[in-house]
Input
Amino acid sequence: MKKHMHHILIVGMVLLSTSLIAHAGSFFKVGEAAPDFSLTGLDGQAVSLQQYKGKVVVLGLFHICEPCLIQSTNLQRVHEATKGKPVAVVGVNSSGDSRADVMTFIQGFPVKVTYPYLLDHEKKTDKLYGGGKFIPNVYVIDQNGLIRWQRVGNFFTDGTLAGHEAIVEEVEKLLQVPPTPSAM
Output
């Protein structure tokens, strides 16, 4: 009986793992058009993905959590490393948190965030880009509005987040390719 229960447990774990991987895999949109959105930043300015057409965009989707703090900090480093280049770094609090809570969260960062940090009270970007339990998400979007690289949640085998060096490397690859006319 114990052997039978052990087999059932293993089969259940495999099915659950497969289901989670398939679910996470459905969020991967490399090569697909990045869904447009329009949100308001912490500074009160309206920002849309469309306004960055022609630039490489590094989009980070965050909640209020420790991995998101680390990844947001990595995006600040990307922002600093790409200054003066046709690159836009954009962060989104995609979990619907209040402006006050997000401001308090950002004030606890080890660096000052100088890239646009947007508020998504309706969680639109979580739905569009597959956030939720797979957070933080980082997407590198090419000049034509196509997703060319992404890290959804902690997808490195060692459990680490995408470091700023890896993101900058992907951005630099895209900067070598001139944009072609297209609708973002």
User: Anything to note?
Assistant: The two ends are 59 Å apart (CA to CA).
